[in-house]
Amino acid sequence: MIYVTDLTEYLFCPYKLYLKKIKGLPLPQTPEMLTGTIIHKIYEEVMLRERIIIDQRIDEKMGIDEIFKILYADSKRVIKNIMIKNKGKLKDAGVDYLELIKELQEELKEDELLKSIRIKKYIGLYGKDQNLYKNLFMMKDMEYSIFSTELGLSGKIDKLEEDSEGNLFPVELKTGLFSNGIRKHEKLQVSAYALLLEKERGIKIPLGFLEYYQVKQRIPFLIKDEDKKEVLDILSKVKELLEGEKEPKKDKKNFCKRCGYNEFCWSS
Ligand code: SF4
């Protein structure tokens, strides 16, 4: 089975995919990759737990401050637990462990305050009904696994959202800041999820989102037929590469500096 991430990796560098999938060379993790993975995990866990917390611990009489205290205390707990588990790895990679905890706490503090305001506003208007979470965050699923035997493609959608009319939207969570427009690999990734959802549900998925969760920025974009065609084109090139096992050309490019295989490819 080919993964959606194989397609984006191919777009960066076919040789990288070849080293990973055909040569089986483990990809050394850079400090940025490690930090990104941990931050991603923290946000994912916070969002998963929030649903239960809002359900079980928030009541209609609470003010914004009380709601915020509950949400933020839980976020801090998640940060602490996940950071403790990864302390050794972060130290080995030279990441400032305490500084990262501080940054994450600040980011989530602001995030939870905004959510608390929205929760209080919703409850004030409609009461605490079963649609509170869905209407506030449009959340349907996190880490939604999806595959198509017809395409021979599978993936995991960071966040699957559903609006009140039953329309579905794939959302890709991103670290950092949105700048310089939507990049080709991001569009390819979300379009691939849309294509998989269309195969699974038999409905059209015309819109996807990039969500820069640290800066609370959501970027919507249309998924056009040509984007889905691009997914199919890359998929067939990836299949060719993996089935043919032919070594692709190795090109030096800017991306090499940030690639985990940099030393392997260019040290001599
Ligand atoms: S270092 Fe450059 S050429 Fe080598 S795998 Fe990475 S991106 Fe490709």
Structure description:
The protein has 268 residues and is an alpha/beta fold. The chain folds into two domains: 2-23 and 138-243, Trna Endonuclease, Chain: A, domain 1 (3-Layer(aba) Sandwich); 31-136, no CATH class. Helix content is 57%, strand content 15%. It contains nine helices and six strands, in the order βααααααβββαββαα. Strands 1, 2, 3, 4, 5 and 6 form a six-stranded mixed sheet that branches. β2 and β3 (153-162) form a beta hairpin. α1 crosses α2 and α7 (184-201) packs across α8. The longest helix has 30 residues, at 97-126. The two termini are 34 Å apart. The relative contact order is 0.16. The model has no long low-confidence stretch (mean pLDDT 89). Iron/sulfur cluster is lined by residues 13, 15-16, 19, 250, 255-256, 259, 261-262, 265. The site of iron/sulfur cluster has 11 residues, from α2 and α9.
Keywords:
alpha/beta; 6-stranded mixed beta sheet; 9 helices; 6 strands
CATH fold annotation of the largest domain = Trna Endonuclease, Chain: A, domain 1
Q: What's the CATH C level of the largest domain?
A: Alpha Beta
Kindly provide the radius of gyration, computed on alpha-carbon positions and rounded to a whole number of angstroms. 21 Å
Q: Report the CATH architecture of the largest domain.
A: 3-Layer(aba) Sandwich
Shape field: globular
SS summary, helix count:
9
Q: Bound compounds, please?
A: iron/sulfur cluster
**Regions with little confidence, pLDDT below 50 for 5+ residues:** none
Distance between the termini: 34 Å
Domain module tally: 2
Can you count the beta strands?
6
**Percentage of residues in helical conformation:** 55-70%
Structural class: alpha/beta
Describe the main β-sheet briefly. Answer: 6 strands, mixed
> Which whole number gives the mean pLDDT?
89
